[in-house]
Amino acid sequence: MTPRTTAPSPADGTQDDALPAVSRAAGAAVKAADRAHVFHSWSAQGLIDPLAVAGAEGSYFWDYDGRRYLDFTSGLVYTNIGYQHPKVVAAIQEQAAKLVTFAPAFAVEPRSEAARLIAERTPGDLDKIFFTNGGAEAVENAVRMARLHTGRPKILAAYRSYHGGTHTAVNVTGDPRRWASDTGTAGVVHFWTPFLYRSPFHAVTEAEECARALKHLEDTIAFEGPGTIAAIVLETIPGTAGIMVPPPGYLAGVRELCDRHGIVFVLDEVMTGFGRTGKWFAAEHFGVVPDLLTFAKGVNSGYVPLGGVAISAEIAATFDKRPYPGGLTYSGHPLACAAAVATIRVMEEEGVVEHAATIGETVLGPGLRELAERHPSVGEVRGTGVFWALDLVRNRETREPLVPYNPGPADNVAMAGFAAGCKANGLWPFVNMNRTHVVPPCTITRAEAEEGLEALDAALSAADAYAD
Length: 468
Description:
Blueprint: H1 21-37, E1 53-57, E2 60-63, E3 68-71, H2 74-77, H3 86-98, H4 109-121, E4 128-132, H5 135-150, E5 154-158, H6 167-172, E6 188-191, H7 206-224, E7 229-235, H8 250-261, E8 264-268, H9 283-286, E9 292-295, E10 307-311, H10 313-318, H11 334-349, H12 352-374, E11 378-384, E12 387-395, E13 400-401, H13 413-424, E14 427-428, E15 430-432, E16 435-438, H14 446-464
Parallel strand pairs: 3-14, 5-6, 5-7, 7-8, 8-9
Antiparallel strand pairs: 1-2, 2-3, 4-10, 9-10, 11-12, 12-13, 12-16, 15-16
Helix pairs in contact: 3-11, 4-11, 7-8, 12-14, 13-14
């Protein structure tokens, strides 16, 4: 991969004093307008201080003061091909000049081509594509399809999961973001999935954890009533919840339980799809084919909002003569689909998926494990491709998290100090509870990855101060 960054220097997060004053004034105006009028998601509005971003390219972004940051978040884990890829920008511009928008009931070239290219890469017979504006809507519609296909009401979903912020998607979610919207009437039952490092099953091996997790799910199905369950919804590899790669055999076991009871198996690949794990879809790592697969984010690197559901032949046939009662004004928007077509072609031409696998195997994985050996605050390293997490702890023996579950500001001092250390060294981190996730663009170069590891090394010293 070749870097395309033209970001201002320096790269260490310090201020460029040569930057024209007009740029700083522009940044101040952007910030003032934001604070006056923008209502930010998942935030207490009076407690946030959003950075005013002046530009981005490749693996970097920068502010109006000339501070440049290596983005280890990929936005919200979606800029899989980095910022401002010229071929995708050109494709959006060309589509805007040709046909900027058109209603979803018609067949238009970018929509048809995007669906074809996605269907070619999804596992099994997931050959029909329903387009949405993003991942939450994809999960919302996948659940609706499953309920209509089976005629059953209940959904089983995992604790330690995130599926989106719409009504159904947030109720399927298994983290604290659900609590404020959970009325207990959404028909969702949560269960535990395997996670050996913090095992809910008192297992000591991956095989034991897998077997006990499957038995727990089997029992949950039995006690909820198999004939009442429409779908089991899982992130193939849970993302925001901690990047816990499932043990061998687990997803295949879930597939078997679904087949045994006529339950629709839904895999959420909103975060893991399109190269993030070193495969087009994470399901390929485990040899499983779901009935429905949701996607968004990396499908076009987030350049224009787009998501969707890839649908099996059996479920698609349910709606051959029966109208599907769902739709969106911007479903398969031409600009978004043109961006998806260009992104998929870039990924093929530049070997992005293969590069993500290689950078994970040769740089990120070994580098993060080396950091773990030297920093007592690192309890576990886990991941694949460009999808990694460091589980930070106060004590390696007890595995006590560095901060409590769902911490408030007063309890989050250790992680806040770690994050500040990253930013001071020119790295923008992905921090959630007691973890930092290493999720840079799939196109990150070896040199950029090593630069990020150096910044993490320095910042982990702040976390080490809280470890035994």
